[in-house]
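Researcher: We are triaging several targets before committing to wet-lab work. For this one, the compound of interest is S-adenosylmethionine. I'm pasting the protein sequence and the ligand SMILES. What I need is the predicted three-dimensional arrangement of the protein with the ligand bound, expressed as structure tokens, so it can go straight into our comparison scripts without reformatting.
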Amino acid sequence: MSGQNKNLVPFWERAYQEDDVTAFSEEPNAAVTEFEHLLPKQANVLEAGCGEGQNAIYLAKQGHCVDAFDLSEHGIAKLKRKSETVHAKVNAFTADLTAYQFTQNYDLILCFGTLHFVSKNDWKQFLVNAKAHTNTGGIHIMQIFTDTVPASEDIAPFAVGLAKDEEIKELYADWEVLQFKSYVFEDEHPNVPKHLHASNKIVARRVK
Ligand SMILES: C[S@@+](CC[C@H](N)C(=O)[O-])C[C@H]1O[C@@H](n2cnc3c(N)ncnc32)[C@H](O)[C@@H]1O
């Protein structure tokens, strides 16, 4: 979302400022619970675009060492409040994935619902860098919206990098793809009417 009209504020920013409203989900993403058994104990984990932190906090509670960042100061502040409440240790900080400098390797890198908010060049470069900073045997779980259906009104001003269907798969041609899903789903958020999103989700493992 860097570089776009600063007067537009996405709907989740308000939810990040309210502790009695959940922006997206209280639960970790289904792919996290489905594939966490592949992780070593105390795995090094990075979540990009973590929002208020349902995945990061869950993984920290499982004993993993979790770094998590988001562009939103309100999102990171809420993540910190939530993680303190449940005594989960997450290294959470604000950062822009388009400028993110990796300083270590990870066993798991995940990103849900965020890559399409930066340009296609930027999300592809982030994935190239993330792959290079993944341990052999490490996992990526990435979910991105596609242009199979038009961007809904709530995200249209921000969705500058929608993928083509299956485009993200090309980035993982040299990894083992453990799961790939292409689907359209109905969505609803506080103060936003029902709408559709088209999505690709990929779970891939670095084999060498
Ligand atoms: C739709 S929300 C998803 C949040 C979280 N991944 C989840 O599933 O609940 C998109 C998130 O991407 C973050 N975001 C947008 N552009 C970003 C960027 N350039 N770098 C890091 N985070 C970004 C937003 O602040 C927001 O928290």
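Researcher: Any quick observations?
Model: The radius of gyration is 16 Å.
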